[in-house]
Amino acid sequence: MTVSQARQGNSTTSVLGRRLGAELLKLRTTAGLTQPQAAKALSASTAKVAKLEGGWVPVRDPDIRALCELYNIHDLGRIGGLLELARVDRERRKAKGWWDDYSIPGVMQEYVTLESAATAIKVWQPGFIPGLLQTPEYVRALRKSPAATAAIKGGQPDEEFIAARLARKRRLSDDPPLSLRVVIYEAVLRNFPGGATTGVGQLEELLKVADRPSVDLRVFPFFAGTHPGLNGSFNLISFAAPGAMDVVYVEAPFAQRWVEGGEAAAAYDELFEKIAEHSLDERESVAYLHKLRKEL
Questions:
Q1: Are 62 and 122 part of one and the same domain?
Q2: Whose CA is closest to 182, among 231, 215, 222?
Q3: What residue numbers bound the domain in which 38 lies?
Q4: What is the value of pTM for the model shown?
Q5: Average per-residue pLDDT in the chain?
Q6: On the CB side of 91, how many CA atoms lie within 13 Å of its CA?
Q7: Segment holding 53, helix H or strand E
Q8: What would the mean pLDDT of 184-198 be, rounded to a whole number?
């Protein structure tokens, strides 16, 4: 779903709300039931069921339990996953965090709020150093680069943009920290905006981050050949057990979109694992970063 599709009149959906709504819709249609039948089980209107399935409103735990009973869903793990997704969505909708101190535009504000609630993120990046790992010098040079995307240039002054990037890094040192798996294409590490001066500091930052137990950083080398992932970057965001509530943020030069369906998100997860499989392992990647650092 694109950002523009997340609005309807004065209402706004959330990424997690749409993800939960899609699950509830799938359960209802699999059970062969209609929205009026679901509404009767909730003692509510058909319009409310439509809003729940569209992700327009937060979902209460009693409603999830009642719908699961109606749809003959008794798997405690599956019910628990839906309840957890609903809880995180409710918290995200009312959350106030560090991002409220910055004028973060559109889709990126949605992204950073999800990033703050996530338990794990997988990042594939064939174009730039991932935002969570960028140094201030890299950000300044990148924003001046003609190759920078609209999302990177944004509408913020440099220092405010940098401050917001640094605030995001707190997730790496939280207790518990964010579990982060990153694969970076070799070309990114050989073409630093700002040249060697920017590159030295950025490589040192990557080495420091790679030393964290919660971070798995790998390099996808040139000799691994071509791969479907080279078409663009994506971030796969998880909120509980792997695959239970994944959503994917996909970024292109002039557009960003969310992939919220279970099967579609699973396809991106499979693609990430294939990319990681053909990458240097953690030890080899760190050794390669040290080698590049010496060359600059």
A1: no
A2: 215
A3: 3-94
A4: 0.79
A5: 86
A6: 13
A7: helix 46-54
A8: 93
Give the list of residues 6+ apart from residue 101 with CB closer than 8 angstroms, or none: none
- Domain-terminating residue out of 73, 94, 115: 94
| pLDDT given for residue 148 in this prediction | 64
Give me the phi and psi of 111, to 5 degrees please: -65, -50
Phi, psi of 154 (to 5 degrees): 55, -160
At 32, is the secondary structure helix, strand, or coil?
coil
Contacts of 152 (CB under 8 A, 6+ apart): 128, 142, 143
Tell me the residue type at 66.
A
Partners of 182 in beta bridges: 123, 217
Which residue reads 């401050």 in tokens? 163
* Amino acid, single-letter form, for residue 60: R
Kindly report the number of other CB atoms within 10 A of residue 273's CB atom: 13
Asked which of 64, 94, 124 is the last residue of a domain, the reply is 94
C-alpha torsion angle, residues 166, 154, 215, 285 (rounded to 10):
-120
Rounded mean pLDDT, 146-175 = 76
Same domain, yes or no, for 12 and 122?
no
Give per-residue pLDDT as tens, 204-241. Answer: 999 999 999 999 999 999 999 988 888 889 999 987 65
Contact of 215 with 182, CB cutoff 8 Å: yes
What's the total number of domains in the chain? 2
Judging by DSSP bridges, how do beta strands 215-220 and 233-238 pair with one another?
A: unpaired
CATH, residue 195: 3.30.870.10
Q: Which amino acid is at 193?
A: P
pLDDT, tens digit, 9 for 90 and up, residues 79-121: 988 898 888 888 777 766 666 676 666 677 778 878 887 889 9
Q: At residue 204, what is the residue type?
A: E
In this structure, the answer to whether residues 9 and 67 fall within a common structural domain is yes
For the record, the structure tokens of 74 come out as 């008794």
CA-to-CA distance for 124 and 181, rounded, in angstroms? 9
User: Residue 2: what pLDDT?
Assistant: 40
